[in-house]
Each structure stands twice: as C-alpha cells, then as structure tokens.
Amino acid sequence: MTGLALLSVSDKTGIVELAKTLVEEFNFQIISSGGTAKTLQSAGIPVTKVSDYTGSPEILGGRVKTLHPRIHGGILARLELDSHQQDLQTNEIRPFDLVAVNLYPFEKTIAQDNCTVEEAIEQIDIGGPAMVRASAKNYAHVTILTNPARYDDYLQELRANQGKTTLAFRQARSAEAFAMTASYDQAICRYFAQINPESADYYGIGGQKIATLRYGENPHQKASWYQNGSEAKGWTSANQLQGKELSYNNLVDLEAARRIVCEFPSNEPAVVIIKHTNPCGVAVGETLFEAYQKAYNADSVSAFGGIVALNQPLDAPTAQAMSKIFLECIVAPDITEEAKAILAKKSNLRVLLLSDLNSGSQDNIKAIAGGFLIQDNDTSIELPDTWQIVTEKQPTETELQELLFAWKIVKHVKSNAIVLTKNRTTLGVGAGQMNRVGSVKIALEQAGEEARGAFLASDAFFPFDDSVRTSAEAGITAIIQPGGSIRDEDSIKAANELGLVMVFTGVRHFLH
C-alpha cells in the first residue's frame, strides 16, 4: 500500500522538494490544505485537498479545516489494537505515515511595528498544534516533521529502511515537535502578559537548542545554547565571520559588552572592552579608532584576552590596532572589507556582526532552587535635567556630560560598583566588593595619578562620608551617586568642605 502524508505548512521551505520525492520515489499519496495545496499543485505535484479528503469544506474563513475525524483518526490510531483497526475500517480512514506541519508565524507578526491585537490573534494556530501534538503523541506509528531542516533526514531514513522510519527517529522528531509547540504557546503567553500585565500569573520559558557548548563556566560543567521562539534574534541572529566556536563564557561576556555599548548612540563612536562581565575599558571618541585606543589604554593589562564591542562598523585602522593583541571576541554592527582582511589573519579570533545591537530581551531571568525570578532589565537612562545637585559647587555642562558618561557605565559593573572616568574614558573600576570602601580603593589605585581631576560614579549611596574624603584626597573633582542614605548630609557636608561637586540621581543601579 502506498504511504500517506499530510503536508500543511506555513513555512514552505523545502516542501515542494519533499513532496516531489515522496510521490516519485516512494509512491506516497499527499493530502494537503490551503496555501500548501496550492503551492504543490503549482509545482505539478498530485495532491488531494483536505476538504476533498474529509468531505467537509473549510469554514470560518479557514479557521476550521483539519479538525476532522478522518484527519485525527488517521493520525492517532494505534495500529496494534484491533479495535482501532476496526474503527478505521468502519469510517474509511487511512492511517498517516507522515505529518509535516509548521505553524502560523505568530512571533514574526507581533514583532512588526503597529501590530494590532486582532492581527496577532489571527496568527494563533489551532489546527496546526493539534495535528503536531497528535502526531507526536502517536510517534509509535507516525513521523512528525516540524522543521524543514529535517526533510532530508526523513528521506534518508526511508531510503535506508525500505520506505519506513525507525522508532528512534520518530521518537526524536516527537520530542522536537513537543518542544516547538511548547515554545509557540509560551510566545503567546508572553504576548498576552505584555498587553495585560495583570493577567501574568504564569510565565513560560522555552527554547530550541541551537548548540551544545564545549562546557560551561568551567570544564566540568555541561552547557547548551537555546534560542527563544522560532525567530532568530539577538545573538542567535549574529553572523560569526571567523574564529573558534563560541563558548559559554564568550556569550555571557558578549552580552555584558552589548548592554554597555548600547548606552551610546551610533553617531557617537564607542568601544567597550569586557573581562569576566565587567568593563575594564570603555571610551567614546571622535573616531572609532580613537575610542578603541582610549578604551585599551584605560587598562591594557586586563584587555588581554578580552571581549570588545563597538557601536559602529569596524574599520581598517581600528582592526589593525586590535590585531596587535590577543582578544577572544569582537562584535560590531558591520565591518569593512579592509578590516575583514586584516582580522582574517588571526584565525582563532571570533568576529561577529550583530546588526541590531539593541535586540536584547526585556526580561531578566535568574534560576533559584525550586523556581526562578523575573525582573525587567535595567535599561533606564537618567539624564542630567532629572538630577539633584546637592553641593554648593555647581557642575559645568562639560562636567555634567562626563558624569553622565560615568553613570552609564557604573550600572553595568558588579556591585558594589565604583567607576572613575576622565575625558569620557574609564580610568579605574572597582567591582564586586563586599563593601563600597573596598571598591573605591581599587578604582583609585587603578587610576593612580590620573585620578586627579577625574569623576567618580557609585551605583548606590555612600553610607558614610569616608569614601567621599578618600576620593577628594586622591583628587576626584565630582561624584555622582543615587543618594538616599540616612547619612546623606554627612557626605554632602564633606563634599562642600572639600570643594567637590556631588550629584544625586535618585536611582540605584545594583547589579548582582
């Protein structure tokens, strides 16, 4: 008996080639619906429409077409049971060997500007997930294909097993199918949670594995990389031009670099050098080359083996400067042909292009025992006109811009965080210390004599005036901090006594 395949796909990639091979090489009969049937007919492939096969027309504008006993009976039948065989015979239902289904492009639709709720709802697939789940449940007898990339694998299975598939292959495709429907439903769940936050009692986390990484943070830890949803975005959409495969630590550091470099507009050349998720050098300049030189010179020792992010296309002079030291990764929105040729000589260097550096998730998820925590990512930007100048000495406009530069960076440094800057370049970074005094000392020691005339940013308030006095002694000109301590007056008094500018932002930026 000929095989029977049900093909109903939104993504038509490879479907004509699959159907043609099934018919010509394996003598399959094809059942199809809607746009898929039209695509196959246009290609000259014999196909029976679902409505003709079931004897029931598509209704409600296509909302109902595959929800029929002849379809789902043929998918769900347990062929080893006599009772099921009898039902099939009585109702003139043939069992399906193959179901190839992918779903309406819900995520692509909601990603479009000005997408309405009504438009989004019409892209919620009903019949598709029902067929996918039914087929995946009955993998003992049915092969379910949800990914066009698997079509060739399926045909190879048929060729290797006299027109059949192995149980192991069907089981693997079943697991893939359930993961796909789970991810699809979670995308819908997240969408409704965004448009109606009061209803967000459930949060779905799902993704498709795109890579098994060599290891995690350390060689004894296993790690994998997953993509949220069916649409590649963020790092899954990046184009790696060269270099070794990305590691777990590479990806974590790349994300930290991306978040910082996004603080600066694309018309302001900015370079970020990251080491272990903390910035060791950040600078802006008149040119990208100048910004890189400033960022590198800020801490050339730590820059060795670092991750570099740029907010403008990588040019030849900057690439030439980068090629002189060992770096793990470089990411930029684009690259010139000259720069590409320069970096190609360093074959192990990972070079990535991420055209949309701002394509980050809105949610920050952290696993804890028995569950997980969710918070908004810290993307707030406080501008000088919202700050409170609490000292007698007032900052100039140039000084305010320097403080803004420091403030943009300190929010991305592990708490307790202190950042020193001058000429819109980092000079010293105190990160992750158990007390703020320790972070201040580290940043000042790193800056050395350059601390004179520099600017200091603190991610949270100073609980005492000791750090203010230490900073003034080192030559700091101005301090920016959230304020909010019960001893703020002590810090303000010390700043006035020592002739410092002090600005309160009213916003804390802890990063744990």
What order do the strands of the largest sheet run in, or round the barrel if closed? 8-13-12-11-9-10
Radius of gyration from the alpha-carbon trace, in angstroms: 30 Å
The percent range for strand residues is 15-25%
Mean pLDDT score: 91
- The tally of beta strands, per DSSP, is 21
Structural category is alpha/beta
Name the overall outline. elongated
Low-confidence residue ranges: none
Instruction: Give the termini separation.
Output: 63 Å
Count of discrete alpha- or pi-helical segments spanning 4 or more residues: 19
Measured as a percent range, the helix fraction is 25-40%
- Assembly form of the protein: single chain
How can the largest sheet be summarized?
6 strands, mixed
Protein architecture, described:
The model has no long low-confidence stretch (mean pLDDT 91). The protein is built from 19 helices and 21 strands. Helix content is 38%, strand content 20%. By secondary structure, the chain is of the alpha/beta class. Helix 8 (127-137) runs antiparallel to helix 10 (167-195) and helix 18 packs parallel to helix 19 (488-498). A six-stranded mixed beta sheet has the order 8-13-12-11-9-10, sandwiched between helices. Strands 16-21-20-19-17-18 form a six-stranded mixed beta sheet, sandwiched between helices. A five-stranded parallel beta sheet has the order 3-2-1-4-5, sandwiched between helices.
